[in-house]
Amino acid sequence: MTTPHPPSTPPSGTGSCPFTGEARDSEWSPDRNETFGSAHADYAALRAQNPFPWSEDFGGFWAATTYEDILAITQNDELFSTAKQNVVPHVPRASRRPPLHFDPPEHTEYRTAIDPVFRRSVVTEHAGAFRDSARRLVDGMLMETSPDAVRHLAAPFAMDCFAALLGLARDQTREIRDLGVRYGFAIQDMDNPVIEECSRRLYEIARDIYDRRLAEDPDPSRDLVAGLHRAALDPDTAITETSAVATIRQLIVAGMGAPQAVLGSCVAHLATDLELQAHLRAHPEDLPSAIEEMLRLHAPYRVFARTATRDTVIHGRTVAQDEPIALLFPSANRDETRFEDPDSFVLRRKQNSHLSFGRGSHRCPAATMGRLELLIALEELLERTETFSLAGDIVMMNWLEYGPRHVPLTVRPAAGMP
Ligand code: HEM
After folding, report:
1. Which of 5, 215, 243, 386: CA 20 to 30 A from 98?
2. Ligand 1 atom with least separation from CA of 363
3. Any idea what the CATH number is for the domain that residue 168 is in?
4. Residue 46 lies inside a defined structural domain of this protein
5. Is residue 1 situated within a structural domain?
6. Is residue 32 assigned to a domain?
7. What is residue 388's predicted lDDT score, i.e. its pLDDT?
8. Rounded to an integer, what distance in angstroms lies between the CA atom of residue 221 and that of residue 219?
9. Would you say residue 207 lies in a domain?
């Protein structure tokens, strides 16, 4: 665990702020050697001692750790923009990809085009495809000699669900799944040549998806591509074909990262709490509430950021114009001023208004889909196994996403399973 210093503590590392040129003490560094759940003690210490620290890491950034600060920042697009830097570290981008890299009012046009496709009545139409994928993957995992909940279930499942949402052809699904898994791991390894190669290919795939879907003339109120295309044809919006393809490109990445990370965390959680696992196997009706609590405990994102559009003060600290602020959603979700007994799993927790799907204009458009993915994957895993437990150490992803990269399992199949 890294130790946070209050602002008055002498510096462990001093740099000059890249934004103001002033000398700055680094007050906190994210731990590079996390284990499952270890970051939370670090975040709790920050909330108690220095809730809004400056870090010299990743080119310099502020870290918002409290529920109240994160809520306030996400709800003020005018002061906290995503157009300049929306992740820490800053990822150089050839062009901005909507909706995340745009602020209202432009951003609103993209959300108006994509939100209808994520409403419950549309997402549930894909439940059968999600379930087929979960069954196939769990059955495949049962045949593995060294099953890994991420490699064999969470990563390919997230891709399959995304492919189902977009109505991709079988060959596209296969490629997007292989590429998506490769891209995800390359990002974790910060393997730039592979990231660039995959990113280029993802743009080509997004274009291909766009052209092929339109050729099938789907219903714009239920189909992502058709909805975006309709907006691109509308002279009253700023959306163009190019920006519509860039939106698909962004959705591919957003759609695979978070569900993979949270599902990996959920399986890891249940593999280490066999009593809860047995309870949920016997009482699947409690799964939605358990998932909500696991979402709170294992929020996958802490790199989403906002950039101050002018000098401002947060938590008594002066944030200069253009400085990035990372939103540590996993910390907000365990803020003791908001949640009673925040580190404990509480089934049917009252007022579980966690921030795992964000808030404000950039809140996740696909929360319903994310929840459905988790429900179906865990239902199938619990039903098709008698028990599963850890077979080794959980390996965590790096800072970019908060979740496991490997969850080695020992899996005992349910009666009648292979
Ligand atoms: C359990 C699953 C998921 C979680 C926990 C999650 C979480 C989040 C969070 C916290 C944000 C807000 C980012 C910010 O404020 O800067 C976000 C935005 C977003 N998510 Fe998700 N997400 C999930 C699943 C998905 C899926 C399945 C898709 C697509 C198929 C998706 C697409 C997006 C997009 C496009 C945005 C940007 C929205 C905007 O800028 O207006 N997410 N998500």
Report:
1. 215
2. 12
3. 1.10.630.10
4. yes
5. no
6. yes
7. 98
8. 5
9. yes
